[in-house]
Amino acid sequence: GKSTYLLLAVVDFFDELVDSAPNLLFASWRELPRSAQRSNAGQLIRFLIGLAAGRSAWPELLPLPSVRWQIVIDGIDESDVDLPTLRPLLRELGTFGSLLVSCREYDFERKLYPIQESFDTIIRLVPWGGDEIDQYKAALANVGDSATVEYIESHHGEYHGVLSVPLWLTMITFLSRRGASAPRGLEVSDYALLSQCGQAVAEDELRRTISDSDPDTKRLLQAWQAAAWSICVARRSGGPLRQDGLREVLGLDDEGIWNACISQLDERNGLVSGFVHEIFLEYWLAEYVVAAMMPESRAPGRLVEALSFQRSVTTNRLIRQGIAYSGIAAEAAA
Fold this sequence. Notes:
Blueprint: H1 2-15, E1 24-28, H2 34-37, H3 41-53, E2 69-74, H4 83-93, E3 97-101, H5 105-112, H6 130-142, H7 146-154, H8 165-178, H9 190-209, H10 217-237, H11 243-250, H12 255-262, E4 265-268, E5 271-275, H13 278-291, H14 300-307, H15 313-326, H16 329-333
Parallel strand pairs: 1-2, 2-3
Antiparallel strand pairs: 4-5
Helix pairs in contact: 6-7, 7-8, 8-9, 9-12, 10-12, 10-13, 13-15
């Protein structure tokens, strides 16, 4: 994904620096507190210096170091963007050094296009294609993973419709190597693979945290759906989502199920900001919506509330695929 590409670009950039060691400040935008996102550049630099050292922010009474910084902010699309404060923040950060920001292309066009002049250079990543897939298959073949190679080859050319080819390949490899949960049938959609991966991860996490019993994945899957909704609401409101508050909302008194649930969430210092990967948040949010349409768990009130929130392009895509995958097109239309 873009985060990996970003880190590789940073490594290449630093390899070209021969005069001195880089003064790197790296942060994931969604993990920054709202006060830091909407602060001025000097305050954000102070916060990032402390973050890099695992400490509190650089003291206000001390002047900032007189150096040029290499500032890297990943996933600026993964949190609500306030354009009136973001525009001057980006401009001011440029006075402290070089700035590299990552964002998904369609979110850039939807959220950041009005301030595109804030970026001197816009780099668009080229999606993976046949050459990269061939390299991936060759690497699998070199380690004797012929089963995964065969599955990928059986769906040659079908990767064009997936969200992310690296993610698609990773899910196929995970399911194939897990053995009992090899990719089923002819399903190649993002939703189908994410659904199978979600079930597999739930089983694995419950066996790890509750080793003396058979895993009951239904409760855990429902918890991840509800957690995705709580994260979405917290992001829109701008308030913090505390770990203890989320556990209370989910009603998870069982320590084993709670530990399995939190293992997939991005939690730091008692605050939950998302899932370990943004695609999982979008998938479980889509599942939250689709579940409210299912005949056995129909929840009109929940559905109306969920659909009242603006959702990402990816979440909407997964909702459509989920409706088709579950065979509830008529119920969804109603």
